[in-house]
Design goal:
Number of strands: 12
Shape: globular
Distance between the termini: 31 Å
Helix content: 40-55%
CATH superfamily: Luciferase-like domain
Strand order of the largest sheet: 1-2-3-4-7-8-9-10
Radius of gyration: 19 Å
Number of domains: 1
Largest sheet: 8 strands, parallel, barrel
Structural class: alpha/beta
CATH topology: TIM Barrel
CATH architecture: Alpha-Beta Barrel
CATH class: Alpha Beta
Order of helices and strands: EHEHEHEHHEEEHEHEHHHEHEEH
Strand content: 15-25%
Length: 346
Amino acid sequence: MSVPAGIRDGSRSAVRIVGTQIEVVKMKIGIGLSVAVPGRPPREIRQWAEDSERLGFHSLGSIDRLIYDILDPLVSLGAAAAVTERIQLFTSVLNVGWRNNPILFAKQLATIDLISEGRLTAGLGIGGWPDDFAASGAPTKGHGKLFDDALTEMRRVWDGDVKSISGATPLPGAGRPRLLIAGLVQAGYARAARFGDGWVAPTLSRELLTNGVRGVNEEWAKADRSGKPQILTGRYFCCGPDATDVMSEYVAHYYGSKDPQDNEPILADSIDSDERLLDELIVLSRAGVDDVVLYPASSSLDQVHLLAEALERVGARRNPTFEFTADSGHTAMNGTAVDDGEMELR
């Protein structure tokens, strides 16, 4: 199984966040576009985006791979931006390590930000899939410096410092687009504090999440940054009577293994029932996550509606877009919405 390094060490019960000193926040809830679900009808991206905005999701998100059956995330987010007005646009994450032209990449991100009128928050990472690096002819070593250099050059583009005799590229507004930086070691947390507005946690492992939140806050203080870093993460979800099977098939396909033991770290934090939805939302909000994007394992358009209904059942509230706190989840847990425990995400 060619899972990127550093993510195969979590389990659902590995960490209990009890008595944490991290502040509980009102966590905003978004939904991923179905771009990474093999066989999805590409033209339905428009309807998915419009339904997500209408039903109150805070954001639309996209993941990123090169050698896989995934629609290009930049093109897809541009299409979503053109048919929506308010919903935020997140990436978690776009891979910088194998994109060999930071000036072109910066221009692409600026274009989405301009089309969306400032709604883009770009989560960026180095990337971890070997096939993507091999296909791009990207260096196999020195990724940290490459990432730093790319971020520096991209900011120069957005500041208007990269020009031809005819002028600069299209410029987003000051401080745009917003950047969140991924990384699972101290150097990655320091990079987030230096270049970004916050940190992107991986889509699995509560231990990696809690360690990362702690690490990036430490580096934020060392860098004398004001305020707090924005924390973004994601989780896979599937709704419906076959949710567990669909989820297992999707994870096996995406991560390239049919061995249940290989896939357990990913499935452990995936969501296929009201109980698991509530559990993940409580844990993430207590850990200090500001934004979570729930990524679909199925491309059926009814997933948007079904997830919105499930969020209401477990205590998420529209204000005006979906948000959640652990207190609201406990209220739902003490009512009738999730009394059956194993209730499916209908």
